[in-house]
């Protein structure tokens, strides 16, 4: 089956849009699709064109693929509408927004047990991808500066993570000329383990990057055990290899659901942590955070100072202009929920995840990979030999007929012959919706089981967009 190309499909559409005559002025009955009109149009007409097209998008509440927040309460929506024009970079024009950003950094540093939460460094970003890039750059520069002081070469840095790492770390290694060293996940170890880490690190390793909430499965990697192995390595060899924790999904779950888990700045080897504010931070898309253990863990030569916005402002984000509203929404959540509120939200999500995973695990066709005990995410596979008529890609497509988006995808290299499905339970996916989803899932399986012959061959490339 040929791979669907959205651009080519768009080009097959008529090159003019027809407009509802009730909204259009004379001359607005047709609108070019791929070039700009010479004349403008009424705001109502422009609105209606865009509005009519986006009703074809999926229902965000039924999207069980994405980790990104799709619902906030009305008061947050009102605050968003009042602050969407704020530019986070312009700290001279918006000094209180800048002050609130700094407060959020200190709140996160305290939540993650920084030894000096009131003075350490951190910054908001457009998401965890940018936060990871900044953390990676700081680690590379820190390694380079140390090597220079020792009179050693700096031309062959490497970084270590599991093969189940999020693609941003592959991008980081590619963009900034750092060798990526992968620890392959296996059926026995679905995450990076200390013995594997020690087999690939050396004096050129700028950091090891364990994941607090693996995208594929929702599992926490054993960060404390990895740190202990690196401590032992340093005691034997003198090699001092730092850790950056990619806590994009788990950084605002573990402090509330697993408060006794040691994974953060309680481990001196952990030098920086990133989190997605727009995931389990419960903020609309466009927000990440990166925080360093102590101020000296962020090299000073990565901080730039600009004066052309009216004040002499330090900046060390990759992006320049970016929205400030999401930062205000993060602070709103910190105020609104507190620790007890975050616990209640995340615990509800986990309860829904564990209810669904138990029900799906008890269905004949399926075998659970994970059950939602770490972050509220679980995954399952089709039992070997259950059927040759359909696979999880077919099930994913069948669920779309009910409006549900549930991804099916292969595991990382070394396990790519294993296909799994994954559900991400977010705030707003209630137990009632979970029961409705389970009903539709059973209906989809019943339909597929009734087939007299195999469905047409299908691969991950034919399964729409992935998150």
From TrEMBL:
Record keywords = Decarboxylase, Lyase, Pyridoxal phosphate
Q: Which NCBIfam families match?
A: Glu-decarb-GAD
* Organism whose genome encodes this protein: Alicyclobacillus fastidiosus
Query: What is the name of this protein?
Result: Glutamate decarboxylase
* Entry keyword annotation includes Transmembrane: no
Q: What class of enzyme is it?
A: lyase
Q: What are this entry's molecular-function GO terms?
A: glutamate decarboxylase activity
Q: Which cofactor does it need?
A: pyridoxal 5'-phosphate
Sorted alphabetically, which InterPro entries does this protein's record hold?
A: Glutamate_decarboxylase, PyrdxlP-dep_de-COase, PyrdxlP-dep_Trfase, PyrdxlP-dep_Trfase_major
Q: Establish whether keyword Kinase is in the entry.
A: no
Superkingdom of this protein's organism: Bacteria
- Record's PANTHER family? GLUTAMATE DECARBOXYLASE (PTHR43321)
Return the similarity comment. Answer: Belongs to the group II decarboxylase family.
> What EC number(s) does its UniProt record assign?
4.1.1.15
Q: Reaction catalysed by this chain?
A: L-glutamate + H(+) = 4-aminobutanoate + CO2
**Per its UniProt record, what SUPFAM superfamilies does this chain match?**
PLP-dependent transferases (SSF53383)
Q: Which Gene3D superfamilies match?
A: 3.90.1150.160, 4.10.280.50, Type I PLP-dependent aspartate aminotransferase-like (Major domain)
A Pfam family of this chain: Pyridoxal_deC
